[in-house]
Write a structure and sequence with these properties.
The complex is a heterotrimer of chains A (about 260), B (about 270) and C (about 280).
Chain A lengths: L12 E6 L5 H7 L12 E2 L2 E2 L7 H7 E4 L12 H11 L7 H11 L16 H13 L5 E5 L7 H16 L3 E6 L2 H7 L2 E6 L2 E6 L1 H10 L9 H11 L10 H13 L1
Helix pairs in contact in A: 3-4, 3-5, 4-5
Chain B lengths: L1 H5 L11 H4 L2 H17 L3 H17 L4 H6 L5 H14 L4 E5 L2 E4 H27 L2 H12 L9 H31 L9 H7 L1 H24 L18 H23 L4
Antiparallel strand pairs in B: 1-2
Helix pairs in contact in B: 3-7, 3-12, 4-7, 4-12, 6-7, 8-9, 9-11
Chain C lengths: L4 E10 L9 E9 L3 E5 L6 H8 L7 E6 L2 E2 L3 H10 E4 L12 H11 L4 H14 L15 H13 L5 E5 L7 H16 L3 E5 L3 H6 L2 E6 L2 E6 L1 H6 L1 H4 L8 H11 L11 H8 L2
Parallel strand pairs in C: 3-8, 3-9, 6-7, 7-8
Antiparallel strand pairs in C: 1-2, 1-4, 4-5, 9-10
Helix pairs in contact in C: 3-4, 3-5, 4-5, 5-6
The chains are: A alpha/beta (about 260), B mainly alpha (about 270), C alpha/beta (about 280).
Chain lengths: ~260, ~270, ~280
């Protein structure tokens, strides 16, 4: 990875999109100081990681990181213990822990009865919710997720996006690392496109789509709906290059009926 | 992947040299001869001869010297430790003293000898793995042990287990790295504390690894069965091992060298 | 069983040992030679269970399954099934046995006791077919997910089975990996191989000739891919992703802007709108 610049604010949803090997997971691990930059700096709420080595743990509390297939990190005997692991590590007062666990479970849609169950006996989707809850229980200010929708079906994806939207509303800064550009354009405020460790494009979804129509980015598949819109536009129809099917159909209808 | 940049792990580097093309059985047995020879050597000059022989093999194998040297990296600490032990704890004529720490003439000699011996042993073994693919090694061992099959020795199973284990080492290292990072991100403290504390802190890494490994064993067994695996009976090889005249010659040469150097070592004036 | 059928299910049922509920019930299905069949259904509908009957990893506890004309409940049938059908599984990592690419492809043929010269030829052909020829001597751990799955396909076709089953083979891959794999499968299909894809992705379903849907272990629907996407209300219950493009396509059809026969594929839709 080299020469990547990015800014994420609270309450914003940024997506980092790129092919496998483009450096997006490396970038994600810089955001909570699991990796330290060789050049330049990473600062979280003003605390630079280079000068403040002693404060790295504090930084990790502020930035929650959910890895790909997070259910693989499960190890405790009960769902409660698994979710309480994070808060315990950060010395959250014992009395507060049950509240944190309950809060995280509610956010991720896990019913009360899951508390005493073994996480290993749950379905794949439930396990993932437990894993994400275990990161949320620490109440991070920013949440970085590496391919959170990997392996999920359409309804699982939608549920996850609803959760992230709610967190964003509550003021959490979301950084969503993915290769699913189709999903990214739908949900993000801004998108960073990485290729071979360098940043290629940065902007709102609309800007990104327009740029992609001009020149192809290796390893990135243009989402079908905007691609279709772009082709229609090339053939003379007056339609926006958008990912929204309804908006596009309306525009097509207007253009064709004319 | 970070781990793998630092260690060669004795990974196979195909250069198509004459050494690579030799039968793995020859290489395994020859290496055993050489390891025995190095183990028994005592004189500096004999060590030099062994080092020169290794150099010759490395040149023949067209391997970059740096790569061969790197195979010793994982044991560098052990080599230094061994050297230091001998340096400070050998009896003999003192050369330097500082409090209770005493360095003797013999100590210096022993430190170099022991350290160098270990170094050579590792390099010889490393050269073997650099010039022989894991499958070849497994095949070679299987053939070498196959006379014991009628006695019930599971030569094929052992070879298959070796192949699979070696194939998954890099994968497991990656996964360990990933899980460690995931738990660090949740605030786990993997760097601090005494031995006991650290072992306990590693439970959140070990348990997930166990789960992955058991699932993998299950999946792999099903995949192997789907690919018609039925044990060693009736299995052929894409590259069957064929013993050639060169292999006999090489083996005889290896034995000759070992015997020659060992004789020389025994004949040289005692220490 | 007719000459053109490669796998036949006759009132097949399967219950896992120790389970009370049947995973498969009363399946009647013929897979024709050379066809590309999609098997769909929600998680737990029995798709993977069905897939494992193709090569006799599982044998029916009720009814029968015939692969290459032989009943898989017999020993001969099981041996036959393993050479008639090969399965590529979901996890790219857990199917690879050897440390080097070409050695892994050789694993299947070696197990079948094929002569070394023939094995080398099959490995070479399989690697060509899957676009991995240049990676023949590379270590398997260094491959990308898409390359690993192509390696699994190479390992399967090296055994020369007439039928290849893919059990959610793309679900752990990124978009370019999926594209690579689909390209290989399409080529195999044009060369006459029978393919069975278990998937929930639209692009893959559209490549198939025929779709069948499983629900709680029974076959509930059969038809062409385009017919499938017209079953608006039932798709979600069958675990099938309805991507935005299909939503768009349906709306265009509904408003009579394009004909109902046009496939939900950008190329065709563009041609239909701008002839």
């Amino acid at each position: 990875m080299s020469d990547v610049s990015l800014q994420v604010n609270r309450g914003e949803w940024i997506s980092v999109v790129g092919h496998t090997g483009s450096g997006k997971s490396t970038l994600a691990q810089h955001m909570n100081a699991l990796l330290l930059p060789a050049a330049g700096d990473v600062a979280i709420d003003g605390i630079g990681v280079r000068e403040n080595r002693s404060q790295l743990r504090e930084i990790r509390r502020k930035v929650g990181l959910v890895f790909q297939y997070p259910e693989q990190q499960i190890f405790e005997e009960t769902v409660y213990d698994e979710i309480a692991f994070g808060p315990k590590n950060w010395r959250v007062p014992k009395g507060e822990i049950p509240e944190r666990v309950a809060e995280a479970m509610t956010l991720t849609g896990l019913a009360e009865r899951f508390r005493t169950l073994s996480p290993f006996n749950l379905s794949g989707g439930e396990k993932r919710r437990v894993a994400i809850a275990s990161v949320l229980a620490v109440r991070p200010d920013y949440l970085v997720l590496d391919e959170p929708t990997a392996g999920l079906d359409a309804s699982g994806k939608r549920e996850l996006c609803r959760l992230l939207a709610k967190l964003k509303e509550n003021g959490t800064g979301i950084v969503h690392v993915t290769h699913d550009l189709e999903l990214a354009v739908e949900v993000s405020d801004k998108i960073l496109v990485l290729t071979n460790g360098r940043s290629k494009l940065w902007g709102t979804p609309e800007v990104i789509l327009e740029e992609l129509m001009e020149c192809e980015v290796p390893g990135l598949v243009m989402p079908p709906v905007p691609f279709f819109a772009g082709r229609l536009r090339d053939l003379g129809l007056d339609v926006p290059v958008t990912w929204d099917p309804e908006r596009l159909v309306d525009a097509i209808e207007r253009s064709v009926r004319r | 992947m970070k781990f793998l940049n630092h260690l060669t792990l004795g990974q196979y580097v195909p250069t198509g040299s004459i050494v690579h093309r030799a039968d793995p059985r020859t290489k395994i047995v020859a290496t055993l001869f050489f390891l025995a020879g190095v183990f028994l050597a005592d004189h500096g000059m004999v060590f030099a001869l062994w080092a020169a022989t290794l150099g010759g093999i490395v040149v023949l194998a067209r391997l970059p010297v740096s790569m061969v040297l790197r195979t010793a990296k994982p044991v560098l600490f052990l080599i230094l430790f061994t050297g230091l032990i001998h340096l400070f704890f050998s009896q003999g004529t003192p050369v330097f003293q500082w409090g209770i720490l005493k360095i003797t003439q013999e100590g210096i000699r022993m430190a170099f000898k022991m350290g160098f011996r270990l170094f050579l042993l590792v390099l010889y073994a490393g050269t073997l793995t650099l010039t022989t693919s894991p499958t070849e090694l497994a095949d070679g061992l299987e053939r070498l042990f196959s006379p014991l099959k009628p006695l019930g020795f599971p030569a094929h199973e052992m070879a298959m287990m070796m192949t699979i284990a070696i194939r998954f080492i890099p994968t497991l290292l990656d996964e360990t790295d990933r899980i460690m990072k995931a738990q660090l991100a949740r605030g786990a403290d993997l760097d601090r504390g005494g031995l006991f504390r650290r072992l306990r802190a590693f439970i959140p890494v070990l348990i997930p690894l166990f789960v992955i490994v058991f699932q993998r064993a299950d999946d792999l067994a099903v995949a192997m069965e789907s690919r018609n695996y039925r044990g060693g009976a009736g299995r052929t090889r894409m590259n069957p091992l064929t013993w050639r005249m060169q292999d006999s010659v090489t083996l005889v040469l290896a034995l000759a060298i070992t015997l020659a150097f060992s004789f020389l070592d025994a004949r040289l004036p005692g220490l | 069983m007719t000459a053109g059928t490669i796998v036949s299910f006759r009132n097949t049922g399967y219950t896992y040992p120790g389970s009370e509920k049947a995973a498969l019930r009363g399946i009647d299905l013929d897979v024709r030679k050379g066809e590309w069949l999609a098997v769909l259904g929600a998680n737990g509908s029995g798709k993977s269970t069905l897939a494992r009957h193709f090569n006799a990893l599982l044998v029916p506890t009720q009814g029968a399954c015939f692969v290459g004309g032989v009943d898989t409940k017999t020993e001969e049938g099981q041996r036959c099934a393993r050479t008639q059908a090969a399965i590529v599984f979901q996890n790219p990592e857990n199917q690879i046995v050897a440390a080097i690419v070409e050695e892994d492809v050789a694993f299947g043929p070696e197990n079948l006791g094929i002569a070394p010269e023939e094995i080398r030829k099959r490995v070479k052909d399989a690697l060509e077919e899957t676009g991995l020829a240049e990676l023949a001597e590379k270590p398997t751990y260094a491959l990308s997910g898409g390359q690993k799955q192509r390696l699994a396909v190479a390992g399967a076709i090296a055994m020369k089975p007439p039928c290849l089953v893919l059990d959610e083979a793309t679900s752990m891959l990124d978009p370019s990996g999926r594209k690579e794999l689909q390209q290989v499968l399409r080529r195999l299909h044009t060369e006459g191989m029978t393919l069975v894809s278990i998937t929930h992705r639209m692009e893959e379903i559209l490549s198939c000739d025929r779709c069948v849907v499983l629900e709680s272990g029974t076959l509930v629907w059969e038809g062409s891919p385009v017919d499938l996407f017209r079953e608006e209300k039932r798709l979600a219950g069958w675990g099938i992703d309805v991507p935005p493009l299909v939503v768009l396509w349906r709306e265009l059809v509904r408003r009579n802007l394009i004909d109902g026969d046009v496939k939900p594929v950008p190329g065709e839709m563009v041609s239909a709108l701008c002839p």
